[in-house]
Amino acid sequence: RGKELVWSYLALKSWSDVWLRHGLVHYINGLFLQHIFGNSHYRFGLMKQSEKVTKHDQEIMAMTGQAFVSPVQLCDKYFAKKAHLIIYMIERRLGPEALQKILQSFFQDKEGKKKTHRLSTHSFMKKIKKQNMSTCDFRAFEKSRIEGR
Q1: How many CA atoms lie within 13 A of 62 on its CB side?
Q2: 54: Cβ–Cβ under 8 A, 6 or more apart, which residues?
Q3: Over the stretch 1-29, which tens digit does the pLDDT of each residue have?
Q4: C-alpha to C-alpha distance for 90 and 128, rounded to whole angstroms
């Protein structure tokens, strides 16, 4: 269900933003699984996902950038898992309510009606920085986790 929601209402500005779509799909699906099976099951799945990504992380390129030869590279299963873990890390830094507020701004207009949005890494990170009330440095996070620098 998360895939249809994200793919229906969020268009990408460029291929380098596809990580965000993958991450949001897996994040929304994870919330559903957490609701159905409980927090322990959800965290166990995150741990297993993290282990697999860590094992293969040397082969996975940055989430954005000019390193892609073709869009097919962006459909790699480890790429999608890493994207989900990045969204999870953002949620942990901001808090679930703040991330949900950001996501609602992409899916709904001010009147609460559904809308289609052209999503980009830049617009997503801009909303995160605007929402961020803590002392977390999201620019450093963005450089290391998303841009791979």
Answers
A1: 17
A2: none
A3: 555 666 666 667 777 788 888 888 888 88
A4: 9
